[in-house]
């Protein structure tokens, strides 16, 4: 195992590589414990006239068996090979061929990086730095080579042999029980996009005709017997391929596109060229096994990985600091795809909820970092909500600022100007500056300044002058290493909403025009005065969440109720209700801590009731409107001295109050929305189920026996996983006998299906009761659980630490102790997984003093443990750092 090493890597130190690799020929002979890897690289010096450069290749836990240069064994005094480096001090300063033989042990690879085994399948994961665990290589994304891969294996063990690109040849190895396949990928690619797979896999096949008429074979490989569960993923893939042609003019480029689903995977999926490898959770779905949310995620992840073919693969990143160049942009693209496939408003609300829950929370704590970080110790720790989700928001802001047409032109220019290159964020943004003749220098601050900007809006109407004055002030809180910030460009989509919800014309008194309803704030404080405002309006600001900011506006409760009922922008209708609920939840959390009685807000309840009654609204939108902000988000709003018990109590009380106050209409909707006919995963059907299940959840929150038995009945009668899980999850929050019975029944029904058992583990981990921690501990010995499988660990332990704020943050610190124990046990086996788990403690400074002290002590125990991985070491050091 690699242990900690002092290696800050800095953006400012970037240097082009001394050596380039033109071609890579790999020959991998699969064996479960000793797989020989022969790599033949054609290397050439990068650039001319420079001082002679040594050749330094990266390695990680490698074992060199042989080394040849231009066909001759290299004498031992001419090179140094350690597990993590191969150095040839004086290589010839010309093109040469280097043949390297290493041997790797896939079965011992518990980190799931490099070549490893998932069950009986051989597979690889090379992003970010996994290729160096297979062979010595300049393992950096700006070294792009053409790969030819020969894989050999026992026919019986691995009848299917796959690698990137197109199949060139395959056949038996004469005189043996082995066979081979040779794959060639004509597109030069960085090593992180290399992949190979070997195993006994079933395959589902389809075809796609691209917009220029080329026929592409599509294949999804899965465990034998699970073929039927791939059909939805295949359908999503074809829709994604078509969408990329229409929305971005991007066509697929190889003859075959393959996806392989494996059970052991550290992340969601990986966009290897022509051979995506997926966590099977994001492929397998049927109405009996997957919820609507699972279907939606599968669609989004399949699309995301496919979209990487252009944004990531054809144009890759110059270095890992540019990670958002592929990830932020590709998340933006998958969000747009989902918005077009489903409901734009509902998708946007979902994306913003995700951003606030994960990214805003990250940005408010010690792990805050810019979308493009300037330094890292361990790149694996930068696959974050900030790089992905905030990164996507920055791309979206470019579109808001420049308009859809210029945005598309900018994308077209990016694709044509940088195809085949390893690019930077500057080069990306420059394309938009060029097509729109706009100076985007200030916009670049979004990439370099961490922290969520706070915008305070103060509006006032002058009835006599018929003018509306809007003062906007922005500030960005300090974040680690960045004590003070410069003002950013904030594109604020706005409207002045008049009586009956009409958008009043926007005319600035200084003659400037408000293009596409967007005000662009560029200074710390700016005032906009609107002229000819015929009536007193209510300002609807940051429509569609046009900028990823925290906005506070001087809107009264009446104004918010008005917007909730009338705003033409659905996002802000939803936001108005969230703001009202957040105000109440903050007051009541404080009241609970001070043992004061809770405040009631009949106005909020009426507004929720009116939303429920509004038949013109989409059911999924109504469901989101009825869903209160989560505990993590409320905690972040409070910001300091947080008592998670008080947050939980305030939220639970409000859910119960909504359930009681709206019991009649909730029951009515519940009955009216029952679906007839077979289950269909489309967005409209899913939206109806979502609203019906939200009604059930609010009713069950009252703990009334009638509601409990309704949930118990739904659990039994459900003909699809969405309804069964919704009933079980509502019940799981109540301490009633029906809960235990339903949980036992669920396990008995699905014991043989690990992905479904994961749902069962999560439900138990998220019960907000003191007995939960013991239950979670006990479940770690359950036969369905394994520390070796990341999905199991995430389902049980990450869920406890991240989705059960109350029990994880127990005042006695036992929740933290459990996480520390688990992190230390996991770290030597799978550091990436351990690092993600320990980051659950990142917001310790926000807590009230007793918990804060215990959480800090827990982090210190991790920090002082011997031989931490670089992954965990980096997180705990940053989490504890002073600034
Ligand atoms: N590029 C993938 C995510 C990914 C990142 C790192 C991995 O291993 C450390 C694996 C996958 C994506 O964005 O889908
Ligand atoms: Zn991605």
- The total of beta strands comes to 32
Q: What overall geometry do the principal axes of the alpha carbons give? A: globular
Question: Which ligands does the model contain, each kind named once?
Answer: O-methyl-L-tyrosine, zinc ion
Strand content: 15-25%
Low-confidence stretches: none
Largest sheet: 8 strands, mixed
Distance between the termini: 31 Å
* Spatial strand arrangement across the major sheet: 6-5-9-3-2-12-15-14
Rg over C-alpha atoms, rounded to the nearest angstrom = 28 Å
Calculate the mean pLDDT score and round it.
97
Structural class by sheet pairing and helices? alpha+beta
Helix content: 40-55%
The number of helices is: 27
How would you describe what is shown here?
The chain is α+β, with helices and mostly antiparallel strands and 883 residues long. An eight-stranded mixed sheet has the order 6-5-9-3-2-12-15-14, with no helix packed on it. A five-stranded mixed sheet has the order 17-18-19-21-20, covered by helices on one side. Helix 9 packs antiparallel against helix 10 (570-593), helix 9 (557-566) packs parallel to helix 11 and helix 20 packs parallel to helix 22. It is globular. It starts with 8 loop residues before the first strand and ends with a helix. The mean pLDDT is 97. Residues 125, 127-128, 266-271, 304-305, 327, 380, 383, 832 line the site of O-methyl-L-tyrosine.
